[in-house]
Give the backbone structure.
Amino acid sequence: MLFSRPRRQTLVATDLDRTMIYSRNAMTVGAEVPTVCVEHLDGDPLSFMTTTAALRMQSLTEPAAVIPTTTRTIKQFDRIKLPGAPWRYAITSNGGNILVDGVPDLRWRIDIDTKVRTGGATLSEVTAELRARIDDSWVTKFREADDLFCYLVVRPKLVPEGFLAEWDAWCRAHGWSASQQGRKIYAMPLAVCKSRAVAEVRRRLTESGELVAGATTLAAGDGALDAEMLRAADAAIRPRHGELEQLNWTSPNLTITQASGILAGEEIINWLIQESPAAAA
């Protein structure tokens, strides 16, 4: 009897915005770089990769099980046409949802909702507290996401000094955390975590035989909400921009790109391919 070996020796969990894909404002390159649009909103181009990165992203799916891992809601994630799709698994809502062949896993979500309810303040309590701390002079939008967390869209230069630290302190005392990525300030339950969802997907892939036992986990991300996912991976990479760069965040397993902006996305994909063992024969 022939033994069918698992197909993948590597799992890649990668953040999307400002890690793999970039808005025009986030590109930050001095010269023209050939790009491909990977997301439209209301018919308008919104997010991009370099043409080289898009081609290399397709190649990454050959040696590795790639898991897009984003804080975006399911609806926001579904707008993206990332090279290499369709995905067996994807993680949205910062780990609050696991998509299996594009469909939310209800058992995972029920478990997450239970952990959030027992872990601290409710979403309604957090939003009420947050609304009491903000005003329209520096906040342009207030959003709740997938009935899990909330975030502000702000004018960064007008955010009151000390606001983020004070808000994070309140959140942590109530089982949540706060972080800022560009123009967005998130309030997130501690139970909603990318690294936990990645560990669950890895378990499922290993049990199904799609991933070899002892497979390497690689991770990429740029924000504070990615930090635990990066730390938990066997090896990780972050771009030389974003929230973690501002925090000067590092870890023994971490590589930092030389480039920033959209060219960092290309460098990240090249690194992931280089670090991914060849697919099992």
Q: What stands out?
A: Residues 194-208 form the longest helix (15 residues).
